[in-house]
């Protein structure tokens, strides 16, 4: 799993980032659930998901100016729910459908 830092943000958001990642990477339930989701995927399906998630998040971040991207992403509840469903889907066709829906937002 690739971990990235934040490019900027408020001081509390920057302080919260390490805690967020530690919580994810040390939570056994999360790790098992994440593995269960992708264990049977081909390398191509995994790469497609990475590409679709990156496009979806870029589309979400485009709502608002550069200083409010994080807030704008948080306000797009339907898009975030679709992104969650995208990552949980074992069906590539469903993933592609959701990705297309997100790109039209």
Automatic annotation (TrEMBL):
UniProt-recorded Gene Ontology molecular function terms: ATP binding; glutamate-cysteine ligase activity
Top-level taxon: Eukaryota
Alphabetical keyword list: ATP-binding, Ligase, Nucleotide-binding
Pfam families the record matches: GCS2
GO biological process: glutathione biosynthetic process
Name this polypeptide is given: Uncharacterized protein
Species: Arachis hypogaea (Peanut)
């Amino acid at each position: 799993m690739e971990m990235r830092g934040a490019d900027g943000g408020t001081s509390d958001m920057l302080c919260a980032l390490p805690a967020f990642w530690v919580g994810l990477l040390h939570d056994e339930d999360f790790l098992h659930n994440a593995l269960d989701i992708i264990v049977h995927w081909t390398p191509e399906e995994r790469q497609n998901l990475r590409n679709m998630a990156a496009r979806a998040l870029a589309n979400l971040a485009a709502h608002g100016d550069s200083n409010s991207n994080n807030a704008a992403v948080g306000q797009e509840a339907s898009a975030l729910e679709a992104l969650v469903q995208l990552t949980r889907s074992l069906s590539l066709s469903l993933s592609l459908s959701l990705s297309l829906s997100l790109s039209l937002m």
